[in-house]
Structure formats: structure tokens, C-alpha cells
Amino acid sequence: MSDGDRKATQHEMIMARMGAEREFNETTLPRIRKQGREALFALLPVAQSDTGQSGVVAKFLLGIYNGTRFPFNLSELRRLDRSLFNQCIQVLAMDFQPEREIHECVNEGGRFFEELADTWCPSNRR
């Protein structure tokens, strides 16, 4: 393969990657974000409840809110039913390339997440 052919092939590969990224950003990412927001708002009342699954959901959300302050053991997700697990994964997918921080998606989100922390992680108070 000549140097010119190699450069042309590299250019085609770069253009293909850029096209795929543009397609993802224009079609897939908005869908991921919409599903993530819907899942987040379904999980919020669960996190405020008082079941075993509520604790897992609350600590998962706190881990996304501030992973340094609230480390989350991913094996805890095994304690969730399939629906809650899938909603957590949708929130995580949304947070992979966030439009904004998770607490900014919720009205008075900072206060909300700090109240969750007081309930589920009282030893991690500020």
C-alpha cells in the first residue's frame, strides 16, 4: 500500500468515526438522556421510601451525585428487582455524558440529595 493510499484510508476511517459520533449525538444521545430523566424521576420516590431496595436506589443515586463522598458497591444492584435495576442503568447511561449534573435535574436537587444522604448515609455528613 502506498503512502497516499494509507493516508486516504486513514482519512476515510476518521471521517467514518466522526460521522458515527455525529449520528450518535444527534439521535441516540437525546433518547438516552430522555430515558435517563424518566428513570431518575421514577427512582426518586423509591429512594425516599424505606425498603431494602430503597436503600440501594438511594445510595446508587448518591454515588452519582458525589461518588467520592458516597462510594457505591455495584454488586448492591443485584438486590434490586429487574425494573429498578434497568432504571438505575438508564440513569447511569444518562450520566455517562451528562448534559448537567444529576442534582441539577431535580427541583432543589442539592437539598434533595443532602436529605437522602442524611437518611441513608448519616456518617457522610458535610
Outline type? elongated
The helix content, as a percent range, equals 55-70%
- In whole angstroms, how far apart are the ends? 62 Å
Structural class assignment: mainly alpha
Strand percentage, roughly?
A: under 5%
Order of helix and strand elements from N to C terminus = HHHH
Number of strands: 0
Chain oligomer state: single chain
Largest beta sheet, briefly? none
Can you tell me the residue ranges where pLDDT is under 50 for at least 5 consecutive residues? Answer: none
* Rg of Cα set: 20 Å
- Number of alpha- plus pi-helical segments: 4
Whole-number mean pLDDT: 91
Number of domains: 1
Description:
- By secondary structure, this protein is mostly helical.
- It has one domain.
- It contains 4 helices and no strands.
- It has helices spanning 3-48, 52-65, 82-96, 109-120.
- Helix 1 packs across helix 3, helix 2 packs parallel to helix 3 and helix 2 packs across helix 4.
- The N and C termini lie far apart (62 Å).
